[in-house]
Design goal:
globular; 70% helix; mainly alpha; two-stranded antiparallel sheet; 20 helices; 2 strands
């Protein structure tokens, strides 16, 4: 007997297809929103002219584009508040930075500037939380694969077809020394190089989940961007990231050695930060093609530290702190155009003082040593944990180590509309989601929505 279209049996078979279509459509919107959130074509949106170092775009236009990129994440968050609250509770240390950004308005030299600039960074974290709470862990990884793939592929396209946008030029008013090197859709060779390096490590970690038809082209595109950006720091990030991934992946099979290895790596990074002000780093810097003063950075850091001697406890507020320092006569004489200190560690110190710096570094330590190690070791004894899950647990630990390394001589972590902040706010919360249905029930308890368990498994 034929089944009528209005019959319950027919509707029950139709519903999953309809939901799947809606879910795919939402994923497409989320991908586009994250693409803008990660800073793709940011300079085009603001109407930035590289020859004059001026932006002619309308502030209203910029606000509309940024708001639109956050809208999907906010909507997903609003419809999944219980799941988002559960993730926030499990990953609370990840949100220390946005909390300090907002709190710093209380002691900021210019609260309005701190809030205006800080709201964008907070929005990045909130919208990313919405994406993770709706899609779950594996689907979030898939979305990031498309976002990262779009960035590297369009960077190649832009560099070849629109070189004035995608390639540093000799006519650039700022940093024409990088002429000929690719900046892609991210506006600067360092941003493109560092993102490509992290994306390569991500693809290697996720290689079992990505079809070979897509894996090889994405890897080749990321390698092309990494090479053409010619960023020494990015080469270092790629090499250290891959080495740490395979080292920690092997160490985890030996149980507690993961903790020892991660601790040793973090201590080495702390030592490298301290060594920047000594003569012991000269030979190493020369080896990787850098001058002993890190292209003038060490003198800049010394000047910033001296300017903060009387405000070292809580700092001077997010963004407004460095702005007030850069407006002094002594600073202006030495550095005319410097939006940050070229070191995320020092930017944290300027904005939040020693208190904020310590809390944020402790949050990194929690992710890499405690949460990363605990989750991966727990998965080691769970026979239902597949190799992709195991690799991504290790990747989350490696991601924090990469962040610690990048932050020595770059300020990405403290900037809002850039790929490093975007991927940290997206991938690390996804990394702390439960691995199995049993873990879901144990970790989430009765307060969590039953949907998140299914999404974690399906995602």
């Amino acid at each position: 007997m034929a089944i009528e279209k209005n019959a319950p049996e027919f509707r029950s078979r139709q519903k999953p297809h309809a939901l799947q279509f809606i879910r795919s459509y939402v994923a497409l919107l989320a991908t586009f929103g994250l693409f803008i959130t990660f800073g793709a074509y940011r300079n085009v949106i603001v109407g930035y002219d590289y020859a004059t170092d001026e932006a002619s775009g309308s502030i209203i236009t910029q606000a509309i584009v940024l708001s639109g990129s956050f809208l999907v994440g906010f909507a997903l968050l609003a419809t999944n508040l219980v799941n988002a609250a559960t993730i926030f509770r499990r990953a609370a240390p990840l949100y220390v930075l946005p909390l300090f950004v907002l709190a710093s308005a209380l002691w900021s030299t210019d609260p309005s500037t701190t809030l205006a600039r800080g709201v964008i960074l907070v929005a990045v974290y909130v919208s990313s939380l919405g994406v993770v709470s709706y899609f779950g862990r594996k689907a979030t990884y898939s979305i990031f694969t498309w976002v990262g793939g779009g960035i590297v592929v369009l960077s190649i396209f832009t560099a070849l077809v629109f070189p004035s946008i995608g390639v540093h030029q000799t006519s650039d008013a700022v940093q024409s020394v990088h002429a000929g090197e690719w900046r892609g859709v991210l506006g600067h060779r360092t941003g493109l190089g560092q993102f490509s390096a992290i994306f390569i490590v991500f693809l290697v970690a996720l290689r079992r989940q990505i079809s070979g038809v897509w894996l090889l082209p994405l890897l080749c595109s990321a390698l092309t961007c990494l090479y053409m950006a010619q960023s020494t720091g990015a080469f270092l990030t790629c090499g250290l990231g891959l080495a740490a991934f395979f080292l920690l992946g092997g160490a985890a099979r030996l149980g507690a050695l993961l903790f020892k290895t991660t601790s040793t790596a973090l201590l080495a990074l702390v030592w490298s930060v301290a060594a920047l002000t000594t003569s012991t780093n000269i030979s190493l810097l020369n080896l990787i093609g850098k001058t002993s003063d890190l292209t003038g950075r060490t003198a800049l850091w010394q000047l910033v530290r001296q300017s903060l001697e009387n405000n070292w406890v809580f700092g001077l507020g997010y963004k407004s702190g460095f702005q007030s320092i850069s407006e002094t006569a002594v600073f202006n004489k030495a550095y005319s155009v410097t939006p940050n200190s070229q070191s995320a560690y020092l930017d944290m110190y300027v904005a939040f003082g020693m208190v904020g710096l310590v809390f944020i570094l402790l949050s990194w330590w929690w992710i890499s040593l405690l949460e990363g190690g605990r989750l991966f070791l727990a998965g080691r004894f769970d026979m239902r944990l597949d190799q992709t899950d195991a690799n991504m647990r290790v990747f989350c630990v490696v991601l924090v180590l990469i962040l610690a390394q990048i932050s020595i001589a770059e300020s990405f972590y403290m900037e809002s509309n850039n790929p490093i902040t975007g991927l940290m706010s997206l991938l690390l919360p996804a990394g702390v989601l439960p691995t199995t249905a049993w873990a879901d029930q144990k970790a989430l308890g009765q307060r969590a929505s039953p949907v998140i368990s299914r999404r974690v498994q399906e995602g």
